[in-house]
Amino acid sequence: MINNSADSIPFSFGGGESTHSAQSSAYADLKVADAYHGARQSSTVWNGFDDEQKLQRLTSASDFIDRVAPLGYIGQPESVAQIRAFPRVLPDASVAVTPYQVVAACCELALLNDISGSLPNSADLKSIGSVLLKGEECDCDNKEMLLAVQMAVLMLGQFFKRKSVHCVRLGRG
C-alpha cells in the first residue's frame, strides 16, 4: 500500500527537513543520509566515508533505483524534463512525491560498493523476483550485495509498474 503522507518527503529524521527536487543528483542528501545511518548499526561504516564519497555513493544508489524497475514506476513524473524517476504523482495523489521508501533504499544501497552500472560482465543477467540485475555481483557470491539489493527491491516493489500475467497451461503435441 502506498502512503503518500508521512512517508513522502519533505520529512525529518530527528532534525531538519529534507527536500528532493526533480533536478537533484540523488534521492537523499548528506544531511538525510547521515541522520538515517546515524540511527542504525550502519553508522560506523557510513561515517568511514568522506562527504565526497558519500555523495558519489548516494548518486550511484539513485542511479540504481532509476534502473531497477523492469517496467518503470507507477504514476507520472513531476516534470518531463526531470532526470530521475522520482518525484512522481502517484495514483490517487495530486502532488508529486518521493516516497520515504525511495529515500531509505537510496541510503541502504549507498553502503554497497560499485553499483554504478559499470560492473564487469555486464552482459550477465540475474533475476531477483521480477527484477533483472546486471553484473557479476549478482552471482550470489557476494551475499551482502544480494541481501541489500533484495531489501531495496522489497522497499521499492510497491511502486513498480506491473504487467498483468496470466498463466495458461498448454498441451504438447
TrEMBL record:
Domain of life where this protein originates: Bacteria
Source organism per UniProt: Simonsiella muelleri ATCC 29453
InterPro entries to which the protein is assigned, alphabetical: DnaT_2 (IPR046787)
Name this protein carries in UniProt: Putative DnaT-like domain-containing protein
Span of domain Putative DnaT-like: 19-113
